[in-house]
Request: fold
Amino acid sequence: MSLETLQYAGTQQTDLIQQRGKGRLTELYCWLWRYIRSEIPAFTIVLLLSILVVLAGLSQPYLTKSLIDNGILAHNRGEVMKVGAWMIGLALFVLAIGFIVRRIHVAASAHLLHRLRESLFTHVMTLSPDVVNRSRQGDLLARLEGDLGEVQRFAVDGALSAINSILTLIGTVIVLGLLSPTLAFYLAILMVINSVVLLWVRPKIEALSAQARDAGVDVTSFLVEKLSAVRCIQTHVAEARELERLQSLHSTVRSRVLSLQLFGYLGGAFPNLVLSLAVIGIFVGGSLEMIGGGALTLGTLVAFATYVQRASAPVHGLMGLYLQWQRVKVCLKRIDSLRSMRPAVSAAARRSNTSIPKGDLAVHNVTYSYPGTKWEAVSRLNFVIPSGAKAWLRGDSGSGKSTFIDLLHRHFELDHGSIAIGGVDIRDIDREILRRYVVVVSQDTVLFAGSLLDNITYGCPDATREEVGRAVKAAGIIEFVDRLPNGLDSEVGSCGAVLSGGERQRVALARALLMAPSILVIDEGTSSLDEGLEQKTIQAIDTLLPRATKVFVSHRQLDESTFDIIIDFPGAHTC
Reply:
């Protein structure tokens, strides 16, 4: 293959990557616009009112010129009083308009931010738990909170600020040209020099913004992970090591933030220098022209200097927006990477049924390997659990029992084979319906901050007290609930910290029983209970759910005589 052919192929591949990148960026902007669009009426009102404020601001220096030339220098008291009254009126007008603008703007801006976050949160809830668990929790929080907030502020506040700054700058330049073309030309030269310096600073600020953001995310992820593992850190006497790691992360943050701030200061300080030189040049040049008998008046000179100072605010504003845009581009990439994650399973085509079919749970030649591995977590599984039967899935740790439950709950897509309920492939059942009637109690119990009752009714919030009472009794919660200060209304703390491991498992079991599932799966969900209490709990479940199919997943030895069917898992295999 010739060198020209290789170069052509490389160019084609680069173009394809660039086209895909542009396509993703376009999709991201369309996503943002979908939510911004609904707030357009409010933002339009804010923009129109802001234009009135800009016009009022441009009027003030001109009134100052009239006050000096036609009032003070002309010794005209009436003109002084009239111009003073106009200036006070404009100040009060700006105050009133500012209050209205703030009220409308804050409400619309907050609504936009919340809808964007709700959209991303909904998307994350469609992802496989395995995908979410492999992501750093601090990083996810940073994207849902900090990154989205940065994008929202720029999309709304930045856009309005840019429009106001540009209008103010254009209006100021026009007025300056009318007042003194010579001084306006001098100002234009300084602005060109300012632009050249900013173009040099630009790429450095963009790179440093990305580095500083990544360093901050590393600290957030570290804190989220370590604060949730205080007991483990103390058990292994690792407090000093973790402190050293945090100090190292802080050192990286300080270094990157310092570099960013220095270049940011240069980008902001140089316009200040330009402004100072402009004001000095205006007064020196204007004074020389007045001394030489030129047509320039004192009022015009003061008004010109005031307009230049007024122009500094929009210049600084636009520079600040530029710096913010560098941070926003980093945030957009991080948000897009989160949005680009796709659910591991596709949605079912049929949604007409309101419950799962009744019948046997049939597993036919099921095989699955985790992405990027050469091991079959489950391999050629074949068994049938009759409807209403009680089954025990047993096998050593790592034999694929929990993976099979994840496949049953459609957290992953099968590589081969099928799982059917009542003769209907679970891929043809709506996921929400499937998970509503196939309920899993796992070993890793999840409780939320709130009352014991809130956690029990989490899957069935409309349950009656009588229904809750039956589930509580069957799960054995009745044995410890009386010692809690407020019974079922007692707070359980973050992640159920007030309760022991066994008590948390019983709460999770009661939550599942309350949902009255057609298929109840207990995946090591009673592992924290002693043997006697475990057997007692299993009997209570049989009494409460006599018609449900019950699947117990355990590597511990259970009483075989209590099960209708026992299924042995052979373990993982090499692909």
